[in-house]
Design brief:
Layout (H helix, E strand, L loop, with lengths): L10 H14 L5 H18 L9 H7 L25
């Protein structure tokens, strides 16, 4: 729903967004969220180049951020399973 608002969001758009946030969240500041949302939406729209064609899969993949090499489990290593059997 938020993306359906116009890019040139005026004071009434910011007020509507802030009221939506206040109605649905007890922890977010609606006015601050509305201002940040409008600012980032304008920056996102300005960064996109109108090329006249639909983006390809390759364009979408290039736009994705690179995954981090370090994973959540980087402090652990995989060890081999103990061999079953008795002593010789």
């Amino acid at each position: 729903m938020l993306l359906s608002f116009p890019l040139d969001g005026d004071a009434t758009t910011a007020e509507i967004i802030s009221e939506l946030i206040y109605d649905n969240s007890t922890t977010l500041d609606g006015r601050r969220f509305a201002q940040e949302f409008i600012t980032r939406r304008r920056a996102d729209a300005a960064s996109k180049k109108p090329s006249g064609r639909a983006p390809s899969i390759a364009d979408v993949v290039k736009a994705q951020p690179k995954p981090s090499q370090q994973t959540e489990w980087s402090g652990f290593k995989v060890v081999k399973q103990k061999k079953k059997g008795g002593r010789s």
